[in-house]
Amino acid sequence: MPRIAYFGPTGTFTEMALARLEDTGTFDASVERVAAASPPAALQLLRDGDVDGAVVPIESSVEGSVPPTMDALSIGPRLQIVAETELDVTFTVVARPGTTAEQVRTLAAYPVAAAQVRQWVADNLPQAQIVTASSNAGAAEDVAAGKADAGISTALAGERLGLDALAENVADFTGARTRFVLLTRPTKTPPRTGRDRTSVILQLPNEPGSLVRAMTEFATRGIDLTRIESRPTRQEYGTYFFHLDCVGHIDDALVAEALKALHRFAQVRFLGSWAAVADNGVPPVSDEADAQWLDALRRGEEDR
Question: Which pTM value belongs to this model?
Answer without folding.
Answer: 0.89
